[in-house]
Amino acid sequence: MAEEGALYASQPARTRGRRHTEPAAPTRDDFQRDRDRIVHSTAFRRLVYKTQVFLNHEGDLFRTRLTHSLEVAQLARSIARPLGLNEDLVEAIALAHDLGHTPFGHAGQDALNDCMAAHGGFEHNLQSLRVVDALEHRYPQFDGLNLCFETREGILKHCSRENALRLEAQEPGGVAHRFLHRQQPSLEAQLCNLADQIAYNAHDIDDGVRSGLLRIEALAEVALFERHRGEAAAEHPGLAGRRLLYETIRRMLSAQVYDVIDATRAALAAHAPADAEAVRRAPPLVQFSAAMRAQSVALKQFLFANLYRHPQVMQTTGQAQQAVRELFALYVREEGALPAAYAARQDRPRAVADYIAGMTDRYAMREHARLTGRAWPTA
Ligand code: MG
Known about the structure:
Helices cover 61% and strands 0% of the residues. By secondary structure, it is mostly helical. It folds into 2 domains: 284 residues, Orthogonal Bundle (Hypothetical protein af1432), CATH 1.10.3210; 51 residues, no CATH class. Helix 3 runs antiparallel to helix 4 and helix 4 crosses helix 10. It is globular and about 65 Å long. The site of magnesium ion has 4 residues, from loops.
């Protein structure tokens, strides 16, 4: 049964507020309003043409950052409701959690981080926060989306100590404070972090098999997959191919969702946080059971070795990194190649990083081809 509006849940009426004071919306609470602002943002629409493992042009059915974000929101809400957490906040964080991702997934991010090594580096979580705090230009009164503290805190999932110190100096006691004082974010933020992992572990199996890079037979070494594949096959004799794969993934997702609900309920009962503030001083409470955590780690390691490090993926990764490095060097050197708003900024390397990070895969490919005169792929 749902514990409606549990004491430990984040409450919109008790938000720590927005950076720029605004009148309340007549019919929506603050977390609903944040979710809606994210859905209407430009960065959110760009997620449809950004990818993580497979590039956007490699196939129409692979996950994009948009479908990934929707799947994270779905999983997180499924867990939030029975735990009595705030579903609107969960949805807002889930839909925004990847807004700062570069084109070309992790390859693009690593390349941009290298390019920015002498200028403060590049972290996608911090970039997601920059998008909602500064880079969206839609409202007359302020830059960014002016989201609530709780939404921004959930978006800044990780942060280096260096960046945390920088943020804390700009916003004392703000969203970076917890990284310097070893505190936890809200339960809603903790949940989105876990839902993110559950989502990509599952959909990368699906996309990996679809791409032909992963073989179902090889997945037999993954206990979490094999158990559910075996049970699905036993219950439905004759089930094979894609339908067996879908049924296996569906069961894996359900098992992880129920596991998180049970393990988190137990942790909440053990620590009994009196309110959302007490959650911050407790250890992480949204969690897998120890057994499921081990299985999830094993699945992640399998995907790492067999998919993310697959020679074909690595080749595309190399091309993407080269393209990002070349674009970066070009924009830093030739101000005329940048749109006026970015060219006008004094912090050229950061302006270039913001511009490149905002690109979709296909836009970055087109820009690279246009500016270098070389057709993609470059290698
Ligand atoms: Mg994600």
